Amino acid sequence: MTTIELLATLQAQGVKLEAHGDKLRYCPSGVIAGETLRELAAHKEEILAILKRGKVEVITCPGDDCDQRVLLVNGVGRCHQHNMSISVHAKIVN
Ligand SMILES: [Zn+2]
pTM (2 decimals)? Predict the structure, then answer.
């Protein structure tokens, strides 16, 4: 499993990840087990480095005929299939 696939899986399960120094915390604790927990341990360093850059979210590329997963950090990412920057900014309901 790639890091982005793992992050997408955890996001779909409603798991929140937090970096505390060199430790990676997740909650709720009961959701992750077995294979996913082993994957999380295997990708720990990479995930910690990503979390330190800001708010992390995985989306499906909004481009036409593209189903690539895109990692957004603070609302900004890049689709490697389109080689295109993707920026998702929060909007306010009027
Ligand atoms: Zn794309």
Answer: 0.86
Sign of the C-alpha dihedral computed for residues 84, 60, 30 and 56 taken in this order: positive
The alpha carbon of 23 and the centre of ligand 1 are apart by a number of angstroms equal to: 32
How many angstroms separate the alpha carbon of residue 21 from the centre of ligand 1?
A: 33
pLDDT tens-digit map of 20-57: 999 999 999 888 889 999 999 999 999 999 999 999 99
- The domains of the chain, with CATH numbers, are 3-51 (1.10.10), 56-87 (no CATH)
Q: Residue 44 C-alpha to ligand 1 middle, in angstroms? A: 26
